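Q: Here's a chain of 365 amino acids. Please give me its 3D structure as C-alpha coordinates.
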Amino acid sequence: MPEIVAPDVRSARKGQPSAVIGRPLRVFAWLSFIAEVIIIGTGGAVRLTGSGLGCSDWPLCTPESLVPIYEVQGIHGLIEFGNRTMTGLVGLLAIAVLLLTLHAVGGRRSLRAALWFALAGIVTGVVFYAVALPFTDEAFPFFTLGLILVTILGAVHSLRITSTRRDLTTLAWIVLIGVVAQAFVGGITVLTGLNPFIVGFHYASSLALVCVTAAFLVRMREPDVQRVSVVPRWFAALSHLTGLALAATIFFGVLTTGSGPHSGDANVIRDGFDATVLAHVHSWPGYILAGLIAALLISAWMLRLQPRYWLTVLAIVVAVQIFVGVWQAREGLPALLVGIHMVLASLSAAAYTVVVLRLKRPARP
Protein backbone atom coordinates (compact mmCIF):
# COMPACT_ATOMS: atom_id res chain seq x y z
CA MET A 1 0.00 0.00 0.00
CA PRO A 2 1.30 3.48 -0.78
CA GLU A 3 2.09 5.85 2.04
CA ILE A 4 -0.56 8.36 3.04
CA VAL A 5 0.67 11.90 2.65
CA ALA A 6 -1.37 14.18 4.87
CA PRO A 7 -0.80 17.72 3.60
CA ASP A 8 -0.85 20.55 6.09
CA VAL A 9 -1.79 23.85 4.47
CA ARG A 10 -0.31 25.90 7.31
CA SER A 11 3.00 24.03 7.19
CA ALA A 12 3.13 24.28 3.42
CA ARG A 13 2.83 28.05 3.66
CA LYS A 14 5.82 28.08 6.01
CA GLY A 15 7.84 25.93 3.66
CA GLN A 16 7.75 22.92 5.98
CA PRO A 17 7.29 19.40 4.58
CA SER A 18 3.96 17.63 4.95
CA ALA A 19 3.60 14.79 7.40
CA VAL A 20 3.91 11.33 5.88
CA ILE A 21 1.82 8.67 7.61
CA GLY A 22 3.67 5.50 6.75
CA ARG A 23 2.61 1.88 7.00
CA PRO A 24 4.30 1.19 10.38
CA LEU A 25 2.30 3.97 12.03
CA ARG A 26 -0.95 2.77 10.45
CA VAL A 27 -0.29 -0.80 11.61
CA PHE A 28 0.62 0.18 15.17
CA ALA A 29 -2.35 2.56 15.39
CA TRP A 30 -4.69 -0.32 14.54
CA LEU A 31 -2.90 -2.63 16.99
CA SER A 32 -3.24 0.03 19.69
CA PHE A 33 -6.98 0.29 19.09
CA ILE A 34 -7.44 -3.49 19.11
CA ALA A 35 -5.38 -3.82 22.29
CA GLU A 36 -7.47 -1.16 24.04
CA VAL A 37 -10.61 -3.17 23.23
CA ILE A 38 -9.03 -6.46 24.27
CA ILE A 39 -7.88 -5.11 27.63
CA ILE A 40 -11.49 -4.22 28.43
CA GLY A 41 -12.28 -7.88 27.83
CA THR A 42 -9.38 -9.11 29.98
CA GLY A 43 -10.24 -6.60 32.70
CA GLY A 44 -13.81 -7.84 32.60
CA ALA A 45 -12.57 -11.41 32.89
CA VAL A 46 -10.66 -10.45 36.04
CA ARG A 47 -13.79 -9.03 37.60
CA LEU A 48 -16.26 -11.62 36.39
CA THR A 49 -14.18 -14.60 37.52
CA GLY A 50 -13.57 -13.14 40.98
CA SER A 51 -9.87 -12.68 40.25
CA GLY A 52 -9.64 -9.01 41.20
CA LEU A 53 -7.36 -9.81 44.13
CA GLY A 54 -5.70 -12.79 42.46
CA CYS A 55 -2.52 -10.77 42.82
CA SER A 56 -2.65 -9.34 46.31
CA ASP A 57 0.05 -6.71 45.77
CA TRP A 58 1.10 -4.15 43.17
CA PRO A 59 3.27 -3.83 41.12
CA LEU A 60 4.42 -7.26 42.32
CA CYS A 61 1.86 -10.02 42.26
CA THR A 62 2.72 -10.90 45.86
CA PRO A 63 5.15 -9.23 48.26
CA GLU A 64 7.69 -11.92 47.38
CA SER A 65 7.06 -12.53 43.66
CA LEU A 66 6.49 -10.55 40.47
CA VAL A 67 4.57 -13.43 38.87
CA PRO A 68 1.75 -15.49 40.40
CA ILE A 69 2.47 -18.77 42.14
CA TYR A 70 -0.13 -21.23 40.88
CA GLU A 71 0.08 -23.50 43.91
CA VAL A 72 -0.83 -20.55 46.15
CA GLN A 73 -3.07 -18.30 44.04
CA GLY A 74 -4.46 -20.77 41.54
CA ILE A 75 -6.22 -19.68 38.36
CA HIS A 76 -7.22 -16.32 39.82
CA GLY A 77 -3.60 -15.22 40.04
CA LEU A 78 -3.00 -16.21 36.42
CA ILE A 79 -6.06 -14.28 35.21
CA GLU A 80 -5.13 -11.13 37.14
CA PHE A 81 -1.48 -11.32 36.05
CA GLY A 82 -2.58 -11.85 32.45
CA ASN A 83 -4.49 -8.58 32.57
CA ARG A 84 -1.44 -6.83 34.02
CA THR A 85 0.66 -8.24 31.20
CA MET A 86 -1.89 -6.91 28.71
CA THR A 87 -1.46 -3.48 30.30
CA GLY A 88 2.23 -3.64 29.50
CA LEU A 89 1.48 -4.49 25.86
CA VAL A 90 -0.99 -1.61 25.61
CA GLY A 91 1.67 0.72 26.98
CA LEU A 92 4.32 -0.47 24.51
CA LEU A 93 1.92 0.03 21.60
CA ALA A 94 1.05 3.53 22.84
CA ILE A 95 4.76 4.38 23.00
CA ALA A 96 5.30 3.02 19.49
CA VAL A 97 2.40 5.07 18.08
CA LEU A 98 3.65 8.22 19.80
CA LEU A 99 7.25 7.86 18.64
CA LEU A 100 6.21 7.07 15.06
CA THR A 101 3.83 10.04 15.09
CA LEU A 102 6.48 12.40 16.42
CA HIS A 103 8.94 11.18 13.80
CA ALA A 104 6.36 11.69 11.06
CA VAL A 105 5.31 15.19 12.09
CA GLY A 106 8.42 16.65 13.72
CA GLY A 107 11.36 14.55 12.65
CA ARG A 108 14.33 13.88 14.89
CA ARG A 109 13.85 17.04 16.94
CA SER A 110 10.46 15.97 18.31
CA LEU A 111 11.62 12.39 18.73
CA ARG A 112 14.76 13.42 20.63
CA ALA A 113 12.78 15.70 22.96
CA ALA A 114 10.31 12.91 23.77
CA LEU A 115 13.13 10.49 24.61
CA TRP A 116 14.74 13.03 26.93
CA PHE A 117 11.43 13.52 28.71
CA ALA A 118 11.08 9.74 29.00
CA LEU A 119 14.43 9.56 30.76
CA ALA A 120 13.47 12.50 32.98
CA GLY A 121 10.19 10.78 33.84
CA ILE A 122 11.96 7.63 34.99
CA VAL A 123 14.42 9.65 37.09
CA THR A 124 11.59 11.70 38.61
CA GLY A 125 9.66 8.55 39.39
CA VAL A 126 12.66 7.06 41.18
CA VAL A 127 13.06 10.27 43.21
CA PHE A 128 9.37 10.24 44.17
CA TYR A 129 9.67 6.58 45.15
CA ALA A 130 12.78 7.18 47.28
CA VAL A 131 11.17 10.12 49.08
CA ALA A 132 7.96 8.20 49.81
CA LEU A 133 9.61 4.91 50.82
CA PRO A 134 10.43 5.88 54.45
CA PHE A 135 6.81 6.89 55.07
CA THR A 136 4.83 4.08 53.44
CA ASP A 137 5.13 0.44 52.45
CA GLU A 138 3.26 1.18 49.20
CA ALA A 139 5.68 3.62 47.57
CA PHE A 140 5.42 2.46 43.96
CA PRO A 141 2.29 4.57 43.20
CA PHE A 142 4.50 7.61 43.84
CA PHE A 143 6.88 6.41 41.12
CA THR A 144 3.96 6.23 38.71
CA LEU A 145 2.76 9.66 39.82
CA GLY A 146 6.14 11.21 39.06
CA LEU A 147 6.18 9.52 35.67
CA ILE A 148 2.70 10.86 34.87
CA LEU A 149 3.65 14.44 35.77
CA VAL A 150 6.76 14.45 33.57
CA THR A 151 4.84 12.76 30.74
CA ILE A 152 2.31 15.60 30.83
CA LEU A 153 5.14 18.16 30.69
CA GLY A 154 6.62 16.24 27.75
CA ALA A 155 3.30 16.41 25.93
CA VAL A 156 3.04 20.17 26.46
CA HIS A 157 6.59 20.71 25.20
CA SER A 158 6.02 18.43 22.23
CA LEU A 159 2.94 20.35 21.12
CA ARG A 160 4.77 23.66 21.49
CA ILE A 161 7.53 22.63 19.08
CA THR A 162 5.22 20.84 16.64
CA SER A 163 3.50 22.82 13.89
CA THR A 164 2.31 19.90 11.74
CA ARG A 165 -0.50 17.48 12.59
CA ARG A 166 -1.03 18.65 16.14
CA ASP A 167 -4.28 16.67 16.10
CA LEU A 168 -2.43 13.37 15.75
CA THR A 169 0.28 14.41 18.20
CA THR A 170 -2.32 15.38 20.80
CA LEU A 171 -4.24 12.12 20.42
CA ALA A 172 -1.06 10.03 20.64
CA TRP A 173 0.03 11.82 23.83
CA ILE A 174 -3.43 11.43 25.37
CA VAL A 175 -3.29 7.67 24.85
CA LEU A 176 0.17 7.34 26.42
CA ILE A 177 -0.72 9.56 29.39
CA GLY A 178 -3.97 7.63 29.76
CA VAL A 179 -2.23 4.26 29.79
CA VAL A 180 0.26 5.40 32.45
CA ALA A 181 -2.59 6.86 34.50
CA GLN A 182 -4.53 3.61 34.07
CA ALA A 183 -1.63 1.67 35.54
CA PHE A 184 -1.70 4.04 38.52
CA VAL A 185 -5.48 3.67 38.96
CA GLY A 186 -5.20 -0.11 38.57
CA GLY A 187 -2.70 -0.22 41.40
CA ILE A 188 -4.92 1.94 43.59
CA THR A 189 -7.80 -0.42 42.79
CA VAL A 190 -5.90 -3.37 44.22
CA LEU A 191 -4.58 -1.43 47.21
CA THR A 192 -8.10 -0.23 48.12
CA GLY A 193 -9.54 -3.74 47.98
CA LEU A 194 -11.53 -3.24 44.75
CA ASN A 195 -13.40 -0.10 45.72
CA PRO A 196 -16.41 -0.13 43.35
CA PHE A 197 -16.12 3.53 42.40
CA ILE A 198 -12.43 3.21 41.52
CA VAL A 199 -13.17 0.01 39.58
CA GLY A 200 -15.91 1.84 37.67
CA PHE A 201 -13.62 4.77 36.93
CA HIS A 202 -10.97 2.31 35.75
CA TYR A 203 -13.42 0.81 33.25
CA ALA A 204 -14.73 4.20 32.04
CA SER A 205 -11.17 5.42 31.50
CA SER A 206 -10.36 2.35 29.42
CA LEU A 207 -13.45 2.97 27.34
CA ALA A 208 -12.38 6.59 26.78
CA LEU A 209 -9.01 5.39 25.50
CA VAL A 210 -10.81 3.16 22.99
CA CYS A 211 -12.55 6.29 21.69
CA VAL A 212 -9.28 8.22 21.45
CA THR A 213 -7.52 5.45 19.53
CA ALA A 214 -10.55 5.24 17.21
CA ALA A 215 -10.32 9.00 16.62
CA PHE A 216 -6.64 8.60 15.77
CA LEU A 217 -7.48 6.00 13.12
CA VAL A 218 -9.95 8.40 11.51
CA ARG A 219 -7.80 11.52 11.65
CA MET A 220 -4.62 9.87 10.36
CA ARG A 221 -6.37 9.25 7.03
CA GLU A 222 -7.38 12.89 6.65
CA PRO A 223 -5.31 15.99 5.87
CA ASP A 224 -4.76 18.58 8.57
CA VAL A 225 -6.84 21.31 6.94
CA GLN A 226 -9.95 23.21 7.91
CA ARG A 227 -12.98 20.95 8.21
CA VAL A 228 -16.47 21.89 7.09
CA SER A 229 -19.82 20.49 8.16
CA VAL A 230 -21.55 18.05 5.82
CA VAL A 231 -24.81 17.73 7.77
CA PRO A 232 -27.62 20.15 8.71
CA ARG A 233 -27.37 21.87 12.10
CA TRP A 234 -30.34 19.97 13.49
CA PHE A 235 -28.68 16.69 12.54
CA ALA A 236 -25.44 17.68 14.28
CA ALA A 237 -27.38 18.74 17.39
CA LEU A 238 -29.29 15.46 17.43
CA SER A 239 -26.00 13.58 17.04
CA HIS A 240 -24.53 15.29 20.10
CA LEU A 241 -27.72 14.62 22.06
CA THR A 242 -27.24 10.96 21.14
CA GLY A 243 -23.77 11.17 22.65
CA LEU A 244 -25.26 12.35 25.93
CA ALA A 245 -27.67 9.42 25.90
CA LEU A 246 -24.78 7.04 25.23
CA ALA A 247 -22.74 8.54 28.09
CA ALA A 248 -25.72 8.26 30.47
CA THR A 249 -26.28 4.63 29.45
CA ILE A 250 -22.66 3.74 30.10
CA PHE A 251 -22.60 5.68 33.39
CA PHE A 252 -25.61 3.87 34.81
CA GLY A 253 -24.29 0.60 33.41
CA VAL A 254 -21.07 1.07 35.38
CA LEU A 255 -23.06 1.80 38.56
CA THR A 256 -25.26 -1.24 37.95
CA THR A 257 -22.30 -3.58 37.52
CA GLY A 258 -20.62 -2.06 40.57
CA SER A 259 -23.69 -2.89 42.66
CA GLY A 260 -24.28 -6.34 41.21
CA PRO A 261 -22.94 -9.78 42.03
CA HIS A 262 -19.69 -9.44 40.05
CA SER A 263 -17.57 -7.54 42.54
CA GLY A 264 -14.22 -8.94 41.42
CA ASP A 265 -13.58 -11.10 44.47
CA ALA A 266 -15.67 -13.47 46.57
CA ASN A 267 -14.79 -11.55 49.76
CA VAL A 268 -15.76 -8.14 48.38
CA ILE A 269 -19.39 -7.31 49.14
CA ARG A 270 -21.25 -4.55 47.32
CA ASP A 271 -23.58 -2.74 49.70
CA GLY A 272 -24.16 0.57 47.94
CA PHE A 273 -26.91 1.07 45.37
CA ASP A 274 -29.79 -1.31 44.73
CA ALA A 275 -28.71 -3.26 41.67
CA THR A 276 -32.29 -4.20 40.72
CA VAL A 277 -33.41 -0.57 40.64
CA LEU A 278 -30.25 0.52 38.80
CA ALA A 279 -30.79 -2.15 36.15
CA HIS A 280 -34.10 -0.49 35.23
CA VAL A 281 -32.59 3.01 35.40
CA HIS A 282 -29.76 1.81 33.15
CA SER A 283 -32.26 0.60 30.55
CA TRP A 284 -34.10 3.94 30.22
CA PRO A 285 -31.30 5.96 28.56
CA GLY A 286 -30.47 2.80 26.59
CA TYR A 287 -33.86 2.76 24.92
CA ILE A 288 -33.70 6.54 24.38
CA LEU A 289 -30.30 5.99 22.76
CA ALA A 290 -31.76 3.37 20.44
CA GLY A 291 -34.57 5.72 19.41
CA LEU A 292 -32.17 8.59 18.70
CA ILE A 293 -29.90 6.37 16.63
CA ALA A 294 -32.90 5.11 14.65
CA ALA A 295 -33.96 8.71 13.92
CA LEU A 296 -30.44 9.63 12.84
CA LEU A 297 -30.07 6.52 10.71
CA ILE A 298 -33.34 7.04 8.83
CA SER A 299 -32.62 10.73 8.30
CA ALA A 300 -29.06 10.08 7.13
CA TRP A 301 -30.14 7.55 4.50
CA MET A 302 -33.07 9.64 3.31
CA LEU A 303 -30.84 12.72 2.92
CA ARG A 304 -27.80 10.67 1.84
CA LEU A 305 -25.59 12.24 4.48
CA GLN A 306 -21.96 11.24 4.89
CA PRO A 307 -22.23 9.57 8.36
CA ARG A 308 -24.91 7.12 7.20
CA TYR A 309 -22.57 4.13 6.84
CA TRP A 310 -21.06 4.49 10.30
CA LEU A 311 -24.49 5.18 11.73
CA THR A 312 -25.49 1.80 10.34
CA VAL A 313 -22.53 0.22 12.14
CA LEU A 314 -23.47 2.04 15.35
CA ALA A 315 -27.09 0.93 15.06
CA ILE A 316 -26.07 -2.72 14.61
CA VAL A 317 -23.69 -2.66 17.59
CA VAL A 318 -26.25 -0.96 19.86
CA ALA A 319 -28.99 -3.38 18.76
CA VAL A 320 -26.78 -6.33 19.67
CA GLN A 321 -25.88 -4.56 22.90
CA ILE A 322 -29.55 -4.18 23.87
CA PHE A 323 -30.24 -7.82 22.98
CA VAL A 324 -27.36 -9.02 25.15
CA GLY A 325 -28.42 -6.69 27.96
CA VAL A 326 -31.96 -8.02 28.03
CA TRP A 327 -30.70 -11.60 27.71
CA GLN A 328 -28.24 -11.29 30.61
CA ALA A 329 -30.91 -9.72 32.82
CA ARG A 330 -33.31 -12.59 32.15
CA GLU A 331 -30.62 -15.22 32.75
CA GLY A 332 -29.44 -13.79 36.07
CA LEU A 333 -26.29 -12.00 34.86
CA PRO A 334 -24.08 -14.89 33.67
CA ALA A 335 -20.45 -13.81 33.58
CA LEU A 336 -19.92 -14.47 29.86
CA LEU A 337 -22.84 -12.29 28.79
CA VAL A 338 -21.82 -9.50 31.15
CA GLY A 339 -18.32 -9.58 29.66
CA ILE A 340 -19.69 -9.39 26.12
CA HIS A 341 -21.90 -6.50 27.23
CA MET A 342 -18.84 -4.63 28.53
CA VAL A 343 -16.87 -5.06 25.32
CA LEU A 344 -19.85 -4.09 23.16
CA ALA A 345 -20.14 -0.86 25.16
CA SER A 346 -16.60 0.07 24.12
CA LEU A 347 -17.34 -0.73 20.48
CA SER A 348 -20.52 1.36 20.65
CA ALA A 349 -18.51 4.31 21.99
CA ALA A 350 -15.86 3.84 19.29
CA ALA A 351 -18.46 3.71 16.51
CA TYR A 352 -20.14 6.84 17.88
CA THR A 353 -16.76 8.60 17.90
CA VAL A 354 -16.36 7.87 14.20
CA VAL A 355 -19.91 9.10 13.51
CA VAL A 356 -19.17 12.42 15.19
CA LEU A 357 -15.94 12.84 13.22
CA ARG A 358 -17.88 12.14 10.01
CA LEU A 359 -20.17 15.10 10.66
CA LYS A 360 -17.43 17.18 9.03
CA ARG A 361 -15.00 16.60 6.19
CA PRO A 362 -11.76 18.27 5.15
CA ALA A 363 -12.39 21.40 3.08
CA ARG A 364 -11.55 21.03 -0.58
CA PRO A 365 -8.65 23.15 -1.86
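Q: Can you summarize the key feature?
A: The radius of gyration is 22 Å.
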